Amino acid sequence: MDTCNSSEEIQICGLYCQARCGTSEEERHQLQNLWIDATLELVRSDNFLRQELADTVDYTAVAGTILKMLDGQEFHLVETVAKVICMEILSKFEKIQRVAVSVHKKPASWIESAESFGVKTTLCRFIGAIGLGTNLGENLQANLSNARALIGKIPHTRILHASSIHCTEPLLFSNQPDFLNQCLLIETWLHPEEFLRHTQAIERAMGRVKNVPNGPRVIDIDLLMFDNFVVRGLTLTLPHPALNTRRFLIEELGELGIKIWHQDGPLMNQRCTRTENQT
User: Fold this and answer.
1) Run of H or E including 70
2) Is 246 designated active site?
């Protein structure tokens, strides 16, 4: 039996505009004719029979955003034009889940065999869950606060919600102080591998040194879930392998609206105490 996941798209076709775009100074000196197509996939809604403009996206406003964004700008590549348009649309229209933009331009006059050249770029909003942990330093609450602030500065990323903070006993390597843990719900346009590079850079910037496996750390930032991604790699596993074995993760993710079913048998990290919520 075939299954169909319902989706709703808005299409803008053949939007004509002009921009300074080209690899040579001569091309960028003169306005180039561009034709832009955009496919906008809306965030899923229970209101299938949408009747009000507030329930959808005004495609004339999207078209106006594209034209305004290109006005007075200079680009070397049409690839850049497509990417910038995608980012501008996602940043200004929260009801758009996914955007695909095609940009076409006329080829050089000496090329007669092609009607146009073009590129297509697609960007999506991803929802992810992140786990924070710290047990090293004079102020563990400050460690979590600093990590949240730096995560909020990752490009094209924002923190939607933060769980309460739990004090938990260490696992695997017991001769170390208790941890403070917290989970974050984030929205980002980055793919998980790219997002991981940013979180690892934050760990290094905050002074984490991985000299003792499972040992004390100033900050630990784990990608727990990332939309529907399933990854089994050397540096990243999604969903996180400990997701359904640790009580504090199940409780904190539950606060963020994510239901996790734990595996059969006892939960690891039985001692888990909720502390003051510092978000």
Assistant:
1) helix 59-70
2) no
CATH class of 126-274: alpha beta
Per-residue pLDDT of 77-119, as tens digits, reads 999 999 999 999 999 998 899 999 999 987 766 566 667 788 9
* 2 has catalytic annotation: no
Could you tell me which residues are beta bridge partners of residue 133? 181, 220
Assigned CATH topology for domain 9-124: GTP Cyclohydrolase I, domain 2 (3.30.1130)
C-alpha–C-alpha distance, residues 243 and 168, integer Å: 15
Is 204 annotated as catalytic?
Answer: no
Would residue 220 show up in a list of annotated catalytic residues for this protein? yes
The first and second tokens of residue 68, run together, are 């305004």
Judge contact between 164 and 152, C-beta under 8 A. Answer: no
Residue 128 tokens read as 């992810």
Catalytic-labelled residue, pool 20, 55, 222, 232:
222
The one catalytic residue among 37, 204, 217, 271 = 217
Look up residue 38 and give its amino acid: A
